[in-house]
């Protein structure tokens, strides 16, 4: 067993091989399918063992690096790297990340990374006990980041489930209508039967919340049957701003952050992908984003309709002209209800883009005409208080994860190169996890 850092080519510690054409994929299957951009689906076949590294081979994700804890299938757009004996797979995963492999790509058209390039990379390898220690340190940070991500997923799912129960399925209204013996409209009868079938499993709401729901329904031309006393309004009547962003004059440093379509994904805003506007060349007066704004990608197939809500911010930030900003009128609609409402309409908004393939646009006029359900203010207020607790916790987790990512990205090259020793890194991580 080696006891010192030594210099080797990567093919001495990893076995490389290309993936194969993807088999049939189905979300109900067991094994992950990896392409050049990470997990792209599930299958019932495997061609790669557990604890392996996957490297993007072609295209814009050429050189990207992923780790699979379990057996998986790797497609022909990626390369498998399987660890050889007396080495840590997770350590070598971080080692590969440190190389910025996308810089080694070849090809003038389609970027390509091949096995020969990978095999010939010369690098310093730590003894196994240090490999394991380094992998543990960096893995601890990644585990915490993943835990925060999963927590945020759970928080959003819980908020959306409550929104759906109250404002889409109308469960509390159905329960009260059934208890009062009031008629159930035909389109809602199947939902009512499901509520009845739950029997004692239906959890009653606290009395002060229950009283805010009506016990009957009324028909509207716009949305069909809705709870009695609730209203239907156009989006532009409950918003004080509905506009596109600026056409920035970019600078490399300083200036004002500009959010673009790449920043918006999975109901989150990645501020690392923002660019900077020169406010001396392009004014931003009255154009900055605020807490509770909804930002919607508004051009292009595949990106149009993606949205995210703005959390607490401490600097001036704007959006570019490919992003639509909607700001709720808080005198009419509560932020928490507004955000959940817009998220619930995301799929529909994706479908109302106009124009030819590649030139699809989301027009402000179509957005303004969106008809929305408007419950009473007291009910919105209660939902808002529930939503904002989880929304702010989610935002806190995002900030924490960004901090952990920064620590990891600082430690990684120093640990891998030997510049930073394991005990010193362990102290740094212990202070933040």
Automatic annotation (TrEMBL):
A single MF term (Gene Ontology): DNA binding
Per UniProt, which keywords does this protein have?
DNA-binding, Restriction system
Q: Can the keyword DNA-binding be found in this entry's annotation?
A: yes
The lineage's top-level taxon is: Bacteria
Task: State any GO BP term from the record.
Answer: DNA restriction-modification system
What this protein is called in its record is: Type I restriction modification DNA specificity domain-containing protein
Give the Type I restriction modification DNA specificity domain ranges. Answer: 8-157, 227-392
The species this protein was found in: Marinigracilibium pacificum
């Amino acid at each position: 067993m080696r006891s010192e850092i030594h210099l080797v080519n990567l093919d001495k510690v990893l076995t490389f091989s290309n993936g194969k054409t993807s088999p049939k994929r189905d979300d109900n299957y067991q094994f992950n399918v990896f392409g050049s951009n990470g997990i792209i689906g599930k299958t019932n076949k495997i061609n790669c063992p557990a604890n392996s590294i996957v490297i993007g081979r072609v295209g814009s994700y050429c050189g990207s690096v992923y780790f699979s804890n379990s057996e998986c299938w790797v497609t022909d757009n990626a390369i498998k790297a399987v660890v050889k004996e007396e080495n840590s797979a997770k350590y070598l995963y971080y080692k590969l990340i440190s190389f910025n492999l996308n810089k080694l790509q070849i090809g003038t058209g389609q970027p390509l990374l091949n096995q020969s390039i990978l095999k010939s990379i010369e690098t310093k390898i730590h003894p196994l006990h240090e490999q394991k220690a380094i992998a543990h340190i960096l893995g601890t940070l990644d585990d915490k980041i993943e835990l925060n991500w999963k927590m945020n997923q759970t928080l959003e799912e819980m908020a959306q489930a409550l929104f759906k129960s109250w404002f889409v399925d109308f469960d509390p209204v159905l329960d009260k209508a059934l208890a009062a013996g009031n008629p159930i409209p035909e389109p809602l009868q199947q939902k009512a039967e499901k509520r009845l079938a739950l029997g004692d499993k239906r959890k009653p709401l606290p009395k002060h919340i229950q009283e805010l729901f009506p016990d009957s329904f009324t028909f509207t031309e716009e949305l069909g049957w809705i709870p009695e006393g609730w209203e239907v309004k156009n989006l532009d009547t409950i918003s004080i701003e509905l506009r596109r962003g600026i056409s920035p004059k970019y600078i490399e440093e300083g200036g004002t952050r500009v959010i673009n379509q790449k920043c918006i994904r999975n109901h989150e805003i990645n501020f690392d992908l923002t660019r900077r506007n020169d406010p001396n060349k392009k004014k931003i007066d009255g154009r900055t984003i605020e807490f509770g704004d909804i930002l919607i990608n508004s051009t292009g197939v595949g990106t149009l309709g993606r949205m995210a809500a703005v959390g607490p911010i401490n600097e001036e930030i704007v959006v570019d002209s490919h992003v639509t900003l909607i700001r709720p009128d808080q005198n009419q609609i509560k932020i928490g209800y507004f955000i959940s409402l817009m998220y619930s309409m995301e799929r529909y908004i994706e479908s109302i883009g106009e124009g030819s393939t590649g030139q699809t646009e989301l027009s402000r006029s179509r957005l303004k005409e969106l008809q929305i359900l408007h419950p009473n203010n007291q009910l919105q207020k209660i939902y808002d208080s529930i939503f904002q607790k989880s929304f702010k916790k989610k935002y806190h987790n995002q900030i924490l994860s960004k901090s952990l990512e920064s620590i990891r990205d600082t430690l990684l090259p120093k640990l891998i190169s030997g510049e930073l020793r394991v005990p010193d890194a362990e102290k740094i991580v212990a202070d933040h996890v």
